């Protein structure tokens, strides 16, 4: 019998599990995939938003600004990668400038300190972003915007939760839930799990989980966002996060740096039918490129590395759904779309308070360990690694990103079992460089084969039944150039 079971090991579920692991509780985190962070938490812009992005008086507005303030400490503890870069929202005409004033006033209402925000123009914009378009008339500047690696953050949260006693159940899709005698019985494809409290953090499938207990008074519909990632040769084009004045559907196409130094643009916003359709399309990628050039005109599409898409779990309520249901002990953490990544650590704290108010006794552990060491080791110019070196710390497996055998071995030895090359990628940044895994894929497979004692031909790139249709970047470049 668990005290609390959390369904969904995305960033919200993993943050909740870690927060609860600070207490003397029996906990489990249930995930249908073979790894954590395989849904929306894997594929998004990775922005730690300023509080201004959400309307004052909403849960999004309350929790975004609180979550933002927690990232620096979390990164010091968990070593997932976070940079406070600041960000600009650009105005290209008078209508946009009116939008900037509304953004500024909303920022003050949600509690953004006045010294962290201002509306700027002219030379000041160019000081911050020299490569921004000359057509920009003004900008809202927010100093506390940052960037993170969303999947590394989620992995770090889940890993630390497991290290502090959370029972992680992977490949455990939930197929039914019953409530009986004051506890919940969660049936997965593998087993039946009993828990006194149950949290629904199932992301795009949260309405499906809610329907199992007839608490589905909302629907989750997928909003697809597509992105383009460029090589680090384009990283000089942006120093911060560059937004465009928003409209009702989207915050506008963003141009940003990643924590690993790549230039990235996106997303668009497409409401789609299928909850697993993360394909990319020429029409939408062309739209993203054209829109991004309004902000930063001079990026080189010949330096594109890959396209990808993610699905935001939009709810019919239009705000985060964080509440206890009519079934005492069953709590929703649903409809967590943008700024869900930013808000996730604050959502976790709010969930703990809801559990406490519902009657869960919370006694803090004396031995909770908040620390989780980094997997990726920073390398300077004195690093003496080489390909096929006998020493794992110097044996370079991914030459584009200088990932060593030792880092891959570290990833494989952690408390979350992994078995695919994509799982290694999400932890070490291997496979993400200029050659897009042409050099390192086979080498990673050999290491996994050796360490897990399985035939190399059984090592998969990804553990998914559905493989999305992604644009071939070489063909995309040819089509754009023609």
From TrEMBL:
Residues 3-352 form the FAD dependent oxidoreductase domain. InterPro entries: BFD-like_2Fe2S-bd_dom, BFD-like_2Fe2S-bd_dom_sf, FAD-dep_OxRdtase, FAD/NAD-bd_sf, G3P_Oxidase/Oxidoreductase. Residues 396-449 form the BFD-like [2Fe-2S]-binding domain. PANTHER family: GLYCEROL 3-PHOSPHATE OXIDASE, GLYCEROL-3-PHOSPHATE DEHYDROGENASE. This is Glycerol-3-phosphate dehydrogenase. It comes from Halanaerobium saccharolyticum.
